[in-house]
Amino acid sequence: MTAPLHDRDSGTSAARPHDRHSGTSGARLPDTQQGMRRRNLSRVMHTVAAHGPLSRAAVASRIGLTRAAVSTLVDELIRSELLDELGPERPGRVGRPGSALAVSARGPVGVGAEVGVDHLAVCAVDLRGETRARVIQQVGNRGRPPEPVLRELAALVRRVCAEARSAGLSPAGLAVAVPGLVARDTHSVVRAPNLGWHDIDLGPHLPPELPLTVDNEANFGALAELWLGEGTPEDFLHVSAEIGIGAALVIDGRLLRGTHGFAGEFGHMPVWPEGPSCPCGGRGCLEQYAGEKAVLRAAGLEAGEDRVALLAERAAAGDKAVRRALGGAGTALGIALTGAVNLLDPRAVVLGGALSRLAPWLLPSLERELAGRTGGRACGVTVSGLGSDGPLLGAAHSVARAVLDDPAGVGAAG
Amino acid sequence: MTAPLHDRDSGTSAARPHDRHSGTSGARLPDTQQGMRRRNLSRVMHTVAAHGPLSRAAVASRIGLTRAAVSTLVDELIRSELLDELGPERPGRVGRPGSALAVSARGPVGVGAEVGVDHLAVCAVDLRGETRARVIQQVGNRGRPPEPVLRELAALVRRVCAEARSAGLSPAGLAVAVPGLVARDTHSVVRAPNLGWHDIDLGPHLPPELPLTVDNEANFGALAELWLGEGTPEDFLHVSAEIGIGAALVIDGRLLRGTHGFAGEFGHMPVWPEGPSCPCGGRGCLEQYAGEKAVLRAAGLEAGEDRVALLAERAAAGDKAVRRALGGAGTALGIALTGAVNLLDPRAVVLGGALSRLAPWLLPSLERELAGRTGGRACGVTVSGLGSDGPLLGAAHSVARAVLDDPAGVGAAG
Question: Basic and acidic residues compositional bias: what residue ranges (chains A, B) (predicted)?
């Protein structure tokens, strides 16, 4: 069995899963033999996870270390039950047959959870990136006090952990995606307007034995896109919507979190500065034109459950009012994206969440506006294939990847 | 004498001076003994540069290595003429007196150059951050072909280098700040509308013996603010103006460059989307309200030389039209900054260049707009103390800091 990776009360370790996606988490450690060993353990894990099964010699050649050095690292990772030796490679090759290495199918799993406005979800992902357990519960959380919501979430987390343990897996930590602002390096939801939550510390409500991370759903959605998206570049702006509109900027494979953890408040870019008042304090914010409420109003529809599906259905059926409403939202998105692209020069813009389901009717006006206003400076707009699964998967993978980033944490504690 | 650090034709090394400001340039090298040695050499140099004179023991304690390890590194840096031993420390302390180390006053200098619309400037900065030579030439460059401009710049560079060499210094590289877009990791100005330049490779026009970097003036201005500004945080948005308006985002002490090197086109954030056409292809861009031309027009003044001084003078004298024009520019800046702050959550906004001279009349409306629209989410606006010197100093310091970031480059070549 492996032990938890990080202490819950370490702000740094809580922040780490989101900061990087490759084995460089030790770059700020004092540069000692010990720091070098930890980084090299991480390189071995990431290499086998991404390209395995691989022989020791193949790992050595990929990461530029000697085979002897790699063998020492591999032995340590096998002892920690993070790598498995699959037995001799296919015979008939020159030299002594190497034994292929693979990431263990037992060992640590990352547990991800999502508090949605309409649902709760929890899943467990192993170090190979496979989902090993998953539950979803439809429940209207808007306006409910946090305590019962988090009690239900904790019960789902315990159910998924029990299922994982019965398969020989060991939950390494819990990451929770919430639809609101989370103060950087804390477990506190500062503001989640669509839940009606203010200044809620999730820590006391969740299983204490699991190291905890809490973050905005848009951030986890962008990380899922980075790690799991087909051909996603390492530099992109991820724009997603459920009820509100959020964004996350990934640069060189790292998430830009902002000083307070509030970066990505894309829904509050001013679009028409004298436009309608917004609860944020501004006027004419993007959300006033492209948020779910604004689009439903423009389409003449009532608020209610799963309105995105209704909008998509009506638009597909040719409903003129719905198409006009989505076209208007696309124009507003295009103007706001012009500002973001001029400021940030991302390689691509990826539309996720509800925006991916409505993309066919948003994209024409969005792209017209963006291309016209940026003088054709290339920035493609693509649509995420993860749909609404992004935040949950991003949360679970962030914990699993933190193990790959610092496998020595497991070995030292085990 | 020391030798040049990097080959001119290495795209990576050309980009390096701007990417980081502390000794982590080796973080992507294979993690070998050699890579570790280079990073530790850099740590010693940065520590002595920032806190020296220091004894070997004090360096060891600051960077978390043993005194023996530090001594080996220090001996190598003394042999490369990057560090000096100042003789025994003050006596009367326990143990054998240590010898204080300081960054050498000879050795490498970084050469910075600036192509302005109204001037050319070149300076040399040593590893201690002191300016050792400097020339400025007033000359109207608007609409001049690049060749004669760059010929004059090259002559100024040679003059500064000769002066540096006669003081026992060795120019380690040249960084040139230009008022335009520079393609990332190249020496090519893609577009400099206020000079009238398109697709100009500066490389062939400048002294071939100096490794060259070329970048946008707003980027170098932001780096100068990071390295030299009083109390500047490691995360800030630097907004500056000369003729156009540019911005640069610094995150964790690193510049966000953008995929193509075009990040920071803040002047082309849409403010009023149906506003006047902009040469960029957009409508209602910030520059149409807060650029020099727009402000002069709104103030009823003609274009001409040093209009910023004229605007400041008239505003100080109470000229109502000028104050109204600057107030309007402040409002537009505040709306555009609202978008940037919502998207990026910087710790601070710093106004540089011409904006710093006009700040007293821009700030009231700018801050009112920003605070009103962001619901009081804290993001202070400060004014740079570097004024129009930022880009030139940022360029020169970027070369000097690249030596601190990889002192092994000097030792290996020397």
Answer: 1-22
Instruction: Dump pLDDT digits (tens) for B229-261.
Output: 988 899 999 999 877 899 999 998 999 999 999
d(C-alpha B127, C-alpha A113), whole Å? 50
The helix or strand, by DSSP H or E, that contains position B176, with its residue range, turns out to be: strand B169-178
Radius of gyration of chain A (CA): 23
Beta-ladder partners of A380: A348
For residue B194, the distance in angstroms to the closest alpha carbon of chain A comes to: 18
**pLDDT interval class at A112 (50, 70, 90):** very high
Task: Please give the single-letter amino acid code of residue A235.
Answer: D
Q: ipTM of this predicted complex?
A: 0.84
Query: Are B372 and A336 an interchain contact pair (Cβ–Cβ within 8 Å)?
Result: no
Nearest to B269 among A235, A272, A342 (CB): A342
Domains and CATH numbers, chain A: 1-229+389-414 (3.30.420.40), 230-385 (3.30.420.40)
Strand B119-126 with B131-138, pairing: antiparallel
Q: What are phi and psi of A411, to 5 degrees?
A: -60, -45
Dihedral pair phi/psi, residue B79, rounded to 5°: -60, -35
Cα separation, B68 vs B167, in Å, equals 34
Question: Where is B175: in which H helix or E strand?
Answer: strand B169-178
pLDDT exceeds 90 at position A81: no
pLDDT of res. B306: 81
Query: If you average pLDDT over residues A125-151, what whole number do you get?
Result: 94
Tell which of B39, B185, B342, B405 to mutate to test the A interface (max A CBs under 10 Å).
B342
> What does the DSSP assignment read for B297-353?
HHHT----TTHHHHHHHHHHTT-HHHHHHHHHHHHHHHHHHHHHHHHH--SEEEEEE
Length in residues, chain B: 414
> Which residue, among B252, B343, B344, would best test binding to A if mutated, counting the most A CBs under 10 Å from its CB?
B343
**Cβ contacts of A261 on chain B, cutoff 8 Å:** 345
The tens digit of pLDDT for each residue in B350-382 reads 999 889 999 999 999 999 999 999 876 668 899
Q: Which residue from B123, B163, B120, B117 is spatially nearest to B141, judged by alpha carbons?
A: B117
- Mean pLDDT, consecutive 10-residue stretches, chain B (414 aa), reads 34 32 37 81 92 91 90 92 78 58 92 94 95 94 93 98 96 95 91 89 96 95 94 92 88 91 93 93 94 94 87 96 97 97 94 92 96 81 91 97 88 38
- Say which of B273, B345, B373 has its CB closest to residue A335: B273
| B345 with A260: Cβ contact below 8 A | yes
Number of H helices, E strands in chain B: 13, 15
A175-184 b/e with 16+ CB inside 10 Å = b? bbbbbbbbbb
Is the Cβ pair B343, A263 closer than 8 Å? Answer: yes
> What span, in angstroms and rounded, lies between the C-alpha atoms of A20 and A43?
13
Residues in chain A: 414
What's the whole-number average pLDDT of chain A? 87
Q: Report the residue of chain B nearest A235, measured CA to CA.
A: B259
The verdict on a CB contact (< 8 Å) between A283 and B373 is: yes
A120 Cβ contact list (under 8 Å, min separation 6):
A113, A114, A136, A137, A139, A141, A149, A152, A153, A156
